[in-house]
Specification:
Blueprint lengths: L4 E4 L6 E4 L23 E2 L2 H9 L5 E6 L4 H17 L4 E6 L4 H6 L7 E6 L2 E7 L4 H11 L1
Parallel strand pairs: 3-5, 4-5
Antiparallel strand pairs: 1-2, 4-6, 6-7
């Protein structure tokens, strides 16, 4: 079997093996032929979340948010910019706590926005509240 990182497709959730030396080139999914990275956060639900957490090799940065939350709305463009900056080394995702209440409960989300970083299927860091891009990137890089 060839060496490579397992990257979950953001479109069809299939697993793709990408050589580390070619990660920055992006690549396309072997199944659906869509780009593996879009430079923006993906919206995850239960099954997709588990696929990215436990089957992919990339760290996953998650914004737990809700549509009625003012600070979440303020944080949305910052999170978009963070995705453009962090991909392809980090998968950036959003979880709507209104539609994905089971995931919010599973991770004990009590305030929003809550930002969590996962590596190897385990949560390694968490912070609550909105922040600017510089502070968000510094926080992520500190915990990678």
């Amino acid at each position: 079997m060839s060496e490579g990182l397992l990257v979950v497709c953001p479109h069809c959730d299939s697993i793709n093996r990408v050589p580390p030396s070619k990660l920055n080139a992006g690549g396309k999914c072997g199944r659906c032929k869509q780009p593996l990275f879009a430079g923006r956060p993906l919206t995850l639900s239960g099954n997709g979340f588990d696929q990215h957490m436990f089957r992919g090799d990339l760290p996953v940065l998650v914004d737990f948010w809700a549509p009625w939350c003012g600070p979440c709305k303020m944080m949305a463009p910052v999170f978009e910019q963070a995705a453009a900056e962090l991909e392809p080394q980090v998968r950036v995702a959003k979880i709507n706590t209104e539609t994905e209440q089971a995931l919010a409960m599973r991770f004990g989300i009590r305030s929003i926005p809550t930002i969590a970083l996962f590596k190897g299927g385990r949560e390694v860091a968490r912070t609550a509240g909105a922040m600017d891009l510089r502070n968000l990137l510094a926080w992520v890089r500190k915990h990678l």
